[in-house]
Design brief:
- This protein is α+β, with helices and mostly antiparallel strands and 219 residues long.
- The protein folds into 2 domains: 47 residues, no CATH class; 170 residues, Transposase Inhibitor Protein From Tn5, Chain A, domain 1 (Alpha-Beta Complex), CATH 3.90.350.
- 33% of the residues lie in helices and 27% in strands.
- The chain contains 6 helices and 9 strands, in the order H-H-H-E-E-E-E-E-H-E-H-E-E-E-H.
- Strands 1, 2, 3, 4, 5, 6 and 7 form a 7-stranded mixed β-sheet that branches. It has a two-stranded antiparallel ribbon with strand order 8-9.
- Strand 4 and strand 5 form a beta hairpin.
- The protein is globular, with a radius of gyration of 20 Å.
- 15% of the residues are buried.
Amino acid sequence: MQERYARLVVAHLTDAQQIAAGLHAIEPARQPFAATQAAWRFFHNPAVSLPQLVRPVQEATRQALAQAASFEALVVHDWSKLHYGTHSSKTDGVPLTQEGDLGYELLSALVLESQHGEPLGLVNQDIRAADGLHSTRHARPGKASSALDGLSEVIEHVEGLKLGTSLVHIADHEADSVTQYRQWSARSYYWLVRADDSRRVRYGEQEYALSDLASHLKD
């Protein structure tokens, strides 16, 4: 099992491009189908849980951050929709963007070195399917939270990994939620979200546009 795990890790590497992703066929598996079948046999083993699979990656990330010269790390959180509407063998998909568009929703947390943006490790992945949420945080599928609540759970988990440095959590506009901003700030998390500064929020006894509130707090 350990040898197979090492081969699967090597299969995701390439010396042509440091950040290239995807499964590559390696010796002796010359054919893509053979590489895919070998991976499936490993991941389908009930003795191997998702937390066990991600633990070496988390430890490697922790070691890489210890060697980095920066005082903080960036954690990029992003959602992806995996479309399998025409794939007849995928029977556990969930509705995505429109009727008949079935697949899976993936939420990833990737740690980057802050000085040069070098990827260090994918420390958490959640994928939503018909039978619930499959997560590297849990050995078995569980109930899926809303997208934003799920993001907050992932951030809390990543903070709890104690990676050895301050973390700045980065997300796109899907995470633009004042409720989440207040929760993260109350827990002293550092975060950066692409937000719509025209929306209005209540601060104290008054309502402000976010852009005006930012100026007010700065003053």
